[in-house]
Amino acid sequence: MSEDTKPTETITSVPAPTVEPSDTAKHTALPEKTSPLVQGFTEGERSAVKELVTRLPLIFEEAFKDLKDESHKLEAVDFWGVPIDPLKGDAEDARVDVILVKFIRARNSDIEAAQTQLIDTLKWRHTFKASETVNEVFPDEVFGKLCHNFGKDKDGRPISYNVYGGDQDLKAIFGDLDRFLRWRVSMQEKALRLLDFTTVDTLLQVHDYDGLGMSSRDANSKKAAADASKIFQDYYPETLYRKFFVGVPTIMTWIFWAFKPLVSSATFAKLSVVGRGPETIGKELLPHIDSSQLPQRYGGSAQAF
Questions:
Q1: At what angle do helices 43-54 and 94-106 cross, to 10 degrees?
Q2: Are the C-beta atoms of 136 and 15 separated by less than 8 Å?
Q3: pLDDT for 18
Q4: For 33-37, 87-91, 118-122, 297-301, which range has the lowest pLDDT when averaged over its residues?
Q5: Residue 42 above 90 pLDDT?
Q6: Nearest residue to 195 via CA among 53, 74, 35
Q7: What are the start-end ranges of the H helices in the chain?
Q8: CA distance 32 to 51
Q9: What are phi and psi for residue 71, nearest 5 degrees?
Q10: pLDDT band at residue 251 under the 50/70/90 scheme
């Protein structure tokens, strides 16, 4: 990832990488892979990741056991923009270890539970065609002003903004649930492709609810929020650094608490609710984001969306 921290808006389509399958017949020795993030692993995590890498052929076979063509079961796949080859374990690519350790951490170092979640994620990514969403086109009049990937925090994490308040047509946004979920996954996949998984492997998110009224929360929006939260909880473990709900009127702080039963306690601890206005919001965000990287509407100095 570039060290340049000049704010850039990156919500245009990003091609999913072409992944070539390995011709290696069998995974053998595991070379030591290293990167700043890998160096931060505990000894227990290093051991667990190595074990999970040795299991990758079996994990892929289980995940894709229903494929009619047997030859495709052990093909390399795109995973958050990183190619993973089950037969190589991507021997020289430390980014794969960084992805695998997320499943181990999400399951409190229980390798069997981590393996199950990884299998489920591979199944879902194949069925949902998650990688393909980065190239899908969604109606600009519905989603054009809803999501912005802009700037980085003080540790180089990309920042994603979801603006649900203002003049957004929420009935159009949430009216077609399948379309909304594909759009939301597309935004997540594009944001993850801004990570290098070498020095940075998590995202900072800001959800803006300024101007949202009590009548905005209908059955469609509730189900959309619940379904999206489940997708991110189940299939994108440990990719969130912090999430700020900003512009939330006092009378609507229930939006924040509504997420509690939808996510794990560890994820809920990463969520913060913030009031309204640039000064109030900036007081919470500026300790994490330099003013030059934070839009003016949130208390920074950057001219952005």
A1: 110
A2: no
A3: 44
A4: 87-91
A5: yes
A6: 35
A7: 43-54, 56-63, 94-106, 111-128, 140-143, 170-175, 177-192, 219-235, 254-258, 265-268, 278-285
A8: 13
A9: -70, -20
A10: low
